[in-house]
Amino acid sequence: MTPTTNVLRPPKVVLYSDGLVIVDASRQLKLTDAEVDETVTSMETYLTGQSPTATPRPGAPMVTDVPATVLGVRGKDGKMLEVRVPALEQVSGFYPKELLDAKKLMEGLATRAAASGTDYVSTRVRIVAEGAASAEGKPAPWPAGVPEPSGTVDPVWQKDVEGAAVSAITKAVPAGQEHGRPLFKTGSGALFVLSWRYLLPDE
User: Fold this and answer.
1) Could you tell me which of 8, 56, 89, 109 has the fewest CB atoms within 10 Å of its CB?
2) DSSP per-residue string spanning 60-122
3) What does the pLDDT look like over 115-142, one tens digit per residue?
4) pLDDT tens, residue by residue, 46-83
5) 55, 65 contact by CB (below 8 A)
6) Distance from C-alpha of 48 to C-alpha of 98, rounded to nearest angstrom
7) 158 vs 151: CA distance, rounded Å
């Protein structure tokens, strides 16, 4: 995982109270009120009583250097239930069935969004610039209208923008090319790889 990937990574699946489902900050789907209620109720049932950080049953193999799965739901009482599950993909058989059911439920929404949803766009974008002083290739001039990195870039520089800057960055780095490592040179001659993603409504 590059520093850019870690900074830009959005929640895999988010369901909002108005029925909007956003997957990977790139696809969206709208659920009915009944579907929202059913999903929230199910997630509450699955996560209630679970430890904030789940522990696999004895005998689970040791797995390192993989991301944890975070499952969460804001219940009807307004309280947030969140469970962090290390290496859920790799040792799923050693965790309670409820956690697997919660993951399956959210993955089902992602599958629906991929099959019958629409592209997600926003009026706000998160820009990330990663230093590329030793990168090979011919850099493009820094896109007009896109803020240039300022201060310390350690290891990346990020900025949330709206308005004209959104059009400028999405034109300079078209959607789907976020990981193509497009190289740009600032006015001062510094080289950066530019990436971006749309922000979610609550970000």
Assistant:
1) 89
2) PPP--S-PPEEEEEE-TTS-EEEEEETTTTTSGGGS-HHHHHHHHHHHHHHHHHHHH-EE---
3) 999 999 999 999 999 988 877 778 999 9
4) 999 999 999 999 999 998 888 899 999 998 788 999 99
5) no
6) 9
7) 11
